[in-house]
Structures are given as C-alpha cells and as structure tokens.
Amino acid sequence: MRILFVYPNATNTEYISYGIAYLSANLKAHGHEAGLLDLTWGRGVRPAQVHRAIDETGPDLVAIGAMSVDYPLALEVARHVKAYRDLPVLVGGMHATVAPEAVIAEDVVDLIGVGESEEALVDLCDRWDAGQDIADTPNFWLKRNPSTGFAQHPERGEWTGQGGQVIRNAPRPLTQNLDSLPFPDRDLFEFDRYMTALNGQLAILATRGCPYSCTYCANNYLRRLYQGQKYVRSRSVENVIQEIEACAARYHVRAIDFMDDVFIANRRWILEFCETYAGRIRLPFRCGARVEYVNDEVCAALAAAGCTWLFMGIEAGDPVIRRDVMHRTYGDEQVVEAFRIARAHGLKVASFNMIGLPRETRDTMNKTVQLNKAVQPDDLRVSIFQPYHGTEIRDLCIAEGFIDADTPPGDFLESVVRLPGLSAHDIEAFRQRFAFRVYWPEQPLKALVFYLAGLAHAPYARLRRYLPAPLVKLVSRAFNR
Domains along the chain? Predict the structure, then answer.
C-alpha cells in the first residue's frame, strides 16, 4: 500500500514531524510505501501542490498529521485532496487524538488515528492490501458506508467509507519495547535542509511519555487514554546511541538536541547513557529537565558527557498559580537550588515560562519575572498560554468563563483567554518586556538585546513565511547556535 503523508507545519518551524517519520519507517519496514507533502518551506498550501504530490505519489490513502495549531491548514489540504480525487483522507496526530469527535465530523475526513499508531497503521495497511474489512482496526475511527456495511469493499478493495455510521475503535496497547521500532525515516524529508536551518542540531527522542500531570499538557489526556498501562517508556541506551551514530555518519551533525519531556527522569538510565555517550559520541548536547530531578550526581554526569544546556520550566512564579492552576508543586527555593547546582557543574540553564494563565493577574505575572530575576537564566523563553483541547486547564477555562466551549487555541502570539483587568494586548506587551525586566540592570546589554528580540518576535512569526529564505535561515541559525 502507498500512503501520501502531509506535514502542514503551520508555524514553519524547522523541525521535522517525528510522528510522521516513525510511522513512515515502520510502514516501509513492513513492505509498504510512503511519500510526503511537506509544507514547512512554503507559504500555506496551494491546490497545485496537493495535485502534484498526488500525481507523483499515486497514493491509496492521504494521511495528514496535525497538532492543534496545524489543524486549520490540515483541513484546507483535505479539501484540496477531495476536490481533486476521491481519495480517503486520514487525519492523525495530537489534535485528532484529543478532539476526535470534532475531527471525524468533518466531511472531508474519512478516518482519524488516535494515539500512538506505528503498529496500528501497519495493521490497517495490511488489511487494506488484503481486501479485508478495516472497520475494527484498533486506533482508528472511520465512517461505515450504509449501503455496503463495510468501511472498505472486501473483494475489490475500493474505498466506500464516506458518510454513514462512525465506528470508534479503542487504541491498541502502547508499544512497551521502543527498541522494536525502526529509527525515524528522516530521508522522507529534505533532512539536510532542516539540518542546515538548525545549524547542525540533530533532534532525538529517547523516551515517550511524562511522569507528571501538568494541567496544560496533553500527557494528562494520553495517560487517561492508556490507563492501566506503563505510560513512561525509555529506549535502551544502546539503541539511542546507534541512532545518533547512524545520523552522524549520514548528516552533518554538530550537536544533539534531546526533545524528551523529561530527559533526566530515570536516574539509572541517565547515568548509563552519560557514560556510554561520553565514550562513543563526543558531541555537545542539550536536554530538558525538571527541577525535582536536578542534583549533583546527575549534573556531574551530564557535564562530563558533553551536555552544555539544560532547559527547565519555571513556568509561573506565583506558587498558587503553579500549584492550583498548573499542578506543578515545587517551591521557589527548589528552582533557585536547581539552577545553582547546574551552574556549579558548568551547565548553562534556560528557563521556560508561561503568562496569561487562567486566574492570572499582573501581580502573578510579575512574580514570574521576579523568580527569573533571582536565578538569572542564561536564556529564557516566555510563551502566551493557549487552552488546548484535551487538557484539564481548558476545562477549567470553560468552567470559570475564561473562554467559550468552542474557543480554539491560538497560535502562541496572542491570548484567547478573557482575564479581568488584562487584555490580549496587555499580555503581549508584558511578554515583550519580560526578558528586559529579568536582565535589567544586572545584565544591561543582554536586557537590551532581548528587548529588541521581544519586539520583533510576533511580527517575525507572522511574516516569516513571506520573508526571503536566506533571511529566515540566518535567523534560525542565530537561535540554534
């Protein structure tokens, strides 16, 4: 079977979809074929792009992977597909997982994929090739045609799934042995182009799942979806090292960027990894951490292995917002101590922060500035809160009147939450000045640079798809140094 994947990437960030890359790799390992329409480098989508991708690939199925921010563009692609050919359209990814009823209700969507689907998609394609009914394939919701009673004709293999009854299949159990999956199919993408844009930073996923239940994150939803199963899983150290070695032999890799939710959560695993990495890779790397896991033993091992940066979430400076709204229970003193320990071992530390949360006030946002000011992070990121589908915090926002039930999340650039005394403009203005207030007067030059960058952030994000490629490349390299 041949699948045309579509990567909408509405934000045009220079990271491939590792979800699509893993799906493609597993399909190919089981004898199926895959092509890709990658919208990362363009300006939206044109019908001719979709037509050309269909003509060149000759797919049996078009599969669109979408985060919530990508969803409007994903639907636009689906409409172009249906206007050109009557091909079945599958929408998968995080948005379809957390908002399945809304997605399957779309006329241009025939199937949706829910949850982790590497093995499920192979099952679907095997059945499809064999002319079998696919109606009870785990992980997939689909529309049964009322005239045939089949989602797919059992003899001719013709698609007959438009309209009719929606069949909702539960997901199969999570893959516990992540080493059983092939390495992601980076060659499906123009991967050298991505590596150039990222200045040689290679993204790697060593784990799946997160042990925490932050209200603003989809991990909470996924843990409920897979209730009773081991949700946090790690690949073996050897498997991760082999993937890095394979990529280093094929691409120009300058550094490694571990994209895991909490890379250092498993002490035994991280200590074994650091020892092996130091002996075989010898490339600088950066990773995410939680303040609760930062200690001298782990930081010493990370530094000895070549780690240069830790990314830690402060998120909110007000303890009540942190505890009651976000379900992050560490104290200010833990944040300060974690930054101190990391720096004592020569690690640079960046902070992640969020403003415009439900129940937020100007005073609580000021506390986030002050906690950052106390630790003086080497770099910081501040985002405007968005109420994503499937999160507990979205339910809170609806219950307390901060958003309407049908309010979609925004695009990180402006708030969609109604906060007493704080307009969307107020929150964006606070974001622009956030870093300046953290670094002034302790680091005046840094404060001025961050202030100018803060002013340019929103206009650049909105206009980047219209800017000349060399300029976008220059900015990307500057921020992925």
Answer: 2-168 (3.40.50.280), 190-479 (3.20.20.70)
